[in-house]
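Is this the right way to post structure tokens for a design question? Let me know if I should format differently. Anyway, here goes:
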């Protein structure tokens, strides 16, 4: 079943939706503080993407575009995407939501890399 990945706005509604992940998730995956640091009502320039089931945000990731001048990973240096955090709520795991988010990141047609915790 294909899932629709949506760009999440940086606003107070998204902030409330992120709080449900904080209840279940690992601290290093928390995006709540990232969102709070960048909150501007209805800002569409967001690094956050998510999948909704009905009206509930059940999976999310942060995906950052990195300029070639900051590229330490590819030769020659080039623009790439960095998948920083990805999380699926416990009751929705093992249903391919995480795979759908990774496939979405791959769909941009440029190099991408996951950023591992501690990197």
């Amino acid at each position: 079943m294909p899932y629709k990945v949506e760009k999440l706005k940086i606003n107070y509604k998204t902030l409330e939706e992120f709080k449900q992940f904080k209840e279940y998730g690992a601290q290093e995956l928390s995006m709540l503080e990232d969102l709070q640091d960048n909150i501007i009502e209805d800002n569409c320039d967001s690094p956050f993407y998510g999948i909704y089931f009905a009206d509930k945000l059940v999976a999310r990731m942060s995906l950052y575009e990195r300029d070639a001048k900051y590229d330490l990973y590819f030769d020659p240096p080039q623009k790439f995407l960095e998948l920083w955090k990805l999380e699926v709520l416990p009751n929705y795991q093992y249903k391919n939501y995480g795979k759908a988010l990774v496939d979405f990141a791959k769909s941009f047609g440029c190099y991408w890399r996951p950023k591992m915790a501690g990197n």
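Format looks fine. Someone answered above. Worth noting: The radius of gyration is 14 Å. Residues 5-114 form a domain with the Aminopeptidase fold (CATH 3.40.630.30).
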